[in-house]
Design goal:
119 residues, mainly alpha
């Protein structure tokens, strides 16, 4: 994603979250929250990995809003980042990430980890 497009995306996300703020998400938490949104939206814009777009379509078809579907995907994306940063022996694994995305159960989403049941 081009730098100009990234800047426009962040402006849009900031505007959307200002119009409809999440409870207790402000300051540093809001910046991190928006960054996770931007990661998912960037993956969607680039079409990589393809599983992200398929997962979004599936979650939308199951009745989630775009915003909630991005949250669900974002949880998995953020956890993948944590895995890669916390263990120098592990690197990004698209197959692992894709499998976790495919395991998201929209019926189980309650504001908690959308992949909680798979562990």
């Amino acid at each position: 994603m081009k730098e100009e497009d990234q800047a426009k995306l962040m402006q849009r996300l900031q505007r959307e979250h200002a119009e409809t703020p999440h409870p207790d998400v402000e300051g540093g938490r809001l910046r991190l929250h928006l960054a996770v949104h931007a990661v998912v939206e960037g993956q969607l814009a680039e079409g990589r990995p393809a599983t992200v777009e398929r997962t979004l379509a599936r979650l939308l078809a199951e009745g989630l809003s775009h915003h909630d579907a991005v949250h669900a995907i974002g949880v998995v994306a953020a956890e993948e980042v944590v895995v890669c940063l916390s263990d120098p022996e592990r690197t990004y694994d698209e197959a692992r990430y894709s499998a976790r995305l495919e395991a998201i159960d929209p019926a189980a989403l309650t504001g908690e980890d959308p992949t909680e049941g798979e562990r």
